[in-house]
Structures are given as structure tokens and as C-alpha cells.
């Protein structure tokens, strides 16, 4: 007898939840029906929906939606990790941002989530050696979302960027998994030096609003960086740093600061 059970590849609880929330949203606000249908319900998968949003938001007189859609579809088809990262990212936003009440919200409304997904396409282009197209994506993400992430930067999964205005992440920066940061964070260099010149952020780090982490330094896992701090030296794991320049002021206060989002020092 034929096996009628659904294949594992067809089971996608994140996408199913997003679609259910999309239907409910139309029932609550029918005037958003066109937006919700075109962005969510017309697509068979999260990957296809993300490709559509990528092309819609980044298109301009210089680059058509069709070309950008083809690029994004190609990226997702060739690298399934992009979709896996997106699911981790949208879950991270839902779980950590108190303003997020549905999985649907980041895809439609939150520029931090959308900017990170667009960066991931740019990073894929960079890895393919398509540097100029990657730079174009970086430029448009900066223009549209106010988020400037170099396509060569390496960023893990489960990333939550709250508000996301004026985020800057440099070329040789590395951001681990399950990192949370707020607006106006800079992961930058300290001058005109070339080569490996940007911060390495460990897993589970919380970076407060306006914090600047500068130079080829290492921030240990599960560290808290207080808002407005300027970090110029390595930070051990599981510490809280604050000040200008930043110094260790105590323990992190919990095992996973990026998840609890407790920013009180």
C-alpha cells in the first residue's frame, strides 16, 4: 500500500503559521487583502515569498523587480540554508521583540528582518563572485531600510535587529548565532587599516542601542553591551560591558542575554 503520509520536506510549521496569520489579517483588515495576498498567500513557500518581498522593496529605475526576483529565486534554490536562516530569524523576532505579536509582522512590516534577508541574498552573490551585484544589493538595502551591511560580512542565524535604523556592519565583521541588537549599532573599524579589521561577535550576544564595537576584537558569547557603549578591546564571555570606552561592569546576569533582552545594567 502506498505511503500517504506527508514528506518531511512538505512540513513547514513556520510557513503554515504565517499563512494562517495572513488569512486572519485579511479578515481583520480587508483593505490589506491585496498586500497580504501578493506578499504571502500567492506563494507556495516562505522562500518564494521572501524573494517577492526582496524584489518589490529593492527594485528601482536602475534594476527591475523581475531581475531581482530571478536573483533571489536562484539564491534560495541553490542554497537551502537561506530559508533555514530566515525561519530562525523570524522566530527570533517573534520571541524577543515585545512589539511582535505574529510571525507575519516581520515579513510585511519590520525593516530589520527584511534588511537581514536582503543581506543574505547579497552575501550569497558575494560568495558566487558576483561582487558588483552584491554591492548593488548593499546600496539598495542601505537606501531603503537605513541598514548598511557589507555583503562579505558573515552573519549567523536567529538574528533580531530591533528598529534597525542606522545599523552598520563592516566587511570583515562576523556575527554569531542568536544575536540581538538594537538601532544605531556599529560593528566597524578604527581607521583606514586594510585586511581583517572588524569585530567578531560571539553567539547569544546582546548589543544595546547606539553601541559601537570597533576594530578586530572578539566579543565573547552571551555578553551584554550596554546602550551607547564604545567597545575597543576584547570582552570575555558572559560579561556586561558599559561606558566610553567600555569596561566590564559585571556578569551578564543570565545565561542568554540576547534572548531575555534585559538591558538594565
UniProtKB/TrEMBL annotation:
GO terms for molecular function: serine O-acetyltransferase activity. It is an enzyme of class 2 (transferase). PROSITE patterns: HEXAPEP_TRANSFERASES (PS00101). Pfam families: Hexapep, SATase_N. It catalyses: L-serine + acetyl-CoA = O-acetyl-L-serine + CoA. Residues 14-118 form the Serine acetyltransferase N-terminal domain. This is Serine acetyltransferase. The keyword NAD does not apply. The gene is cysE.
Amino acid at each position: 500500500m502506498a505511503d500517504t503520509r506527508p514528506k518531511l520536506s512538505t512540513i513547514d510549521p513556520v510557513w503554515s503559521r504565517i499563512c494562517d496569520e495572513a488569512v486572519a489579517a485579511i479578515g481583520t483588515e480587508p483593505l490589506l487583502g491585496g498586500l497580504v495576498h501578493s506578499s504571502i498567500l500567492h506563494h507556495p513557500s516562505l522562500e518564494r515569498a521572501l524573494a517577492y518581498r526582496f524584489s518589490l522593496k529593492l527594485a528601482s529605475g536602475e534594476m527591475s523587480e523581475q531581475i531581482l526576483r530571478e536573483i533571489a529565486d536562484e539564491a534560495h534554490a541553490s542554497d537551502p540554508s537561506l530559508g533555514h536562516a530566515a525561519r530562525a530569524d523570524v522566530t527570533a523576532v517573534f520571541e524577543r521583540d515585545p512589539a511582535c505579536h505574529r510571525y507575519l509582522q516581520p515579513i510585511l512590516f519590520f525593516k530589520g528582518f527584511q534588511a537581514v534577508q536582503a543581506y543574505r541574498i547579497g552575501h550569497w552573490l558575494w560568495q558566487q563572485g558576483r561582487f558588483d551585484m552584491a554591492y548593488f544589493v548593499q546600496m539598495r538595502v542601505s537606501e531603503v531600510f537605513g541598514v548598511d551591511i557589507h555583503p562579505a560580512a558573515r552573519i549567523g542565524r536567529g538574528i533580531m535587529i530591533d528598529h534597525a535604523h542606522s545599523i552598520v556592519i563592516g566587511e570583515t565583521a562576523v556575527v554569531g548565532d542568536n544575536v540581538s541588537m538594537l538601532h544605531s549599532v556599529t560593528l566597524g573599524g578604527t581607521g583606514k587599516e586594510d585586511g581583517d579589521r572588524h569585530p567578531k561577535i560571539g553567539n547569544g550576544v546582546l548589543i544595546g542601542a547606539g553601541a559601537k564595537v570597533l576594530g578586530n576584537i572578539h566579543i565573547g558569547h552571551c555578553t551584554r553591551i550596554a546602550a551607547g557603549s564604545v567597545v575597543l578591546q576584547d570582552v570575555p564571555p558572559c560579561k556586561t560591558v558599559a561606558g566610553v570606552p567600555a569596561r566590564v561592569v559585571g556578569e551578564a546576569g543570565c545565561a542568554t542575554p540576547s534572548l531575555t533582552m534585559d538591558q538594565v545594567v
